Amino acid sequence: MSERKITETEILNRVYNATDHEALMSAYRDWADQYDSDLLDRFGYVAHVATAKALHEALGGSTDARILDAGCGTGLVGEELVKLGYRHIDALDYSADMLAQAARKGIYGERMQADMKHRLPVDDDAYDAVVCTGTFTYGHVTGDAFDELVRIVRPGGVIVFTIREGAYEEYGYRRRMLDLETAGAWELVSFYDTPYQLEEGNTCKMCSYRVPYRA
Ligand SMILES: C[S@@+](CC[C@H](N)C(=O)[O-])C[C@H]1O[C@@H](n2cnc3c(N)ncnc32)[C@H](O)[C@@H]1O
């Protein structure tokens, strides 16, 4: 591990108060090699474990599922999925530095550097499931990105993601989730509050949806 460039508090401020995409990516560039130890040892991050469990339940334990870990970061969710027996996991993130950390773990198949605010470089119906933890939050990706997740998951497949407490209403996620449900684009499987970082005492919404079969 290289020498620390910035404190945990400073990096969190930069990540959650980034005013534009470049500022956010610059923050992740400076954080990438310390991200896992900060999250796990300092902040008591548990959302990656909870998301893997929620996905496992939504998939009914089908460990041959083809999964995309969107906003994969350093691969903490992927590692949990591997522990549960999943073997076909691709990774997508906009930060080359976070993707490089994920690559070192040797758990992902394809690794894509892509922006979730735009059309993804993925075919329609390509995945049985998409998982996305910690990326629907302050200063990151808005609910407009849900449409692309629906497009790339096959009918009958599932989408499981977290939304940080507070951001859920404030950033319009709730409205977009309900609109997609009303439009029949996805069906709610489960929705509950769960701890995000134990040491920080914060929570997230754990959201699971199924893409319906077409008539
Ligand atoms: C808080 S980290 C979560 C990483 C991982 N899922 C986890 O649970 O540890 C958020 C990730 O979202 C990525 N991200 C932020 N904005 C993005 C965007 N527009 N497109 C793709 N990835 C993005 C960041 O690079 C970062 O790796």
In short:
This protein is 36% helix and 26% strand.
Describe the overall structure.
- This is Class I SAM-dependent methyltransferase.
- Helices cover about 35% and strands about 25% of the residues.
- By secondary structure, the chain is of the alpha/beta class.
- It has two domains: about 10-40, no CATH class; about 45-210, Vaccinia Virus protein VP39 (Rossmann fold, 3-Layer(aba) Sandwich).
- Strands 3-2-1-4-5-7-6 form a seven-stranded mixed β-sheet, with helices on both faces.
- Strand 6 and strand 7 form a beta hairpin.
- Helix 1 (about 10-15) packs antiparallel against helix 2 (about 20-30).
- The chain binds S-adenosylmethionine.
Relevant terms:
single chain, 215 residues, alpha/beta, Rossmann fold, seven-stranded mixed beta sheet, 7 strands, binds S-adenosylmethionine
Topology:
Blueprint: H1 8-16, H2 21-31, H3 35-42, H4 47-58, E1 66-70, H5 76-83, E2 88-93, H6 96-104, E3 111-113, E4 127-136, H7 146-152, E5 153-164, H8 167-170, H9 173-182, E6 187-197, E7 202-210
Helix pairs in contact: 1-2, 4-5
This protein binds S-adenosylmethionine.
S-adenosylmethionine is lined by residues 24, 28, 48, 71-73, 76-77, 93-95, 98, 115-117, 133-135, 140-141.
Total domains, how many? 2
Number of DSSP helical runs = 9
DSSP strand content? 25-35%
Shape designation: globular
Helix content: 25-40%
The whole-angstrom Rg is 16 Å
| CATH fold title of the largest domain | Rossmann fold
Please, what is the average pLDDT?
Answer: 95
Note the run of SSEs as H and E.
HHHHEHEHEEHEHHEE
Distance from first to last alpha carbon: 53 Å
Low-confidence stretches: none
Biggest sheet record: 7 strands, mixed
Unique bound compounds: S-adenosylmethionine
CATH top level assignment of the largest domain: Alpha Beta
Structural class: alpha/beta
CATH architecture of the largest domain: 3-Layer(aba) Sandwich
Order of strands across the main sheet: 3-2-1-4-5-7-6
Give the number of DSSP strands: 7
CATH superfamily of the largest domain: Vaccinia Virus protein VP39
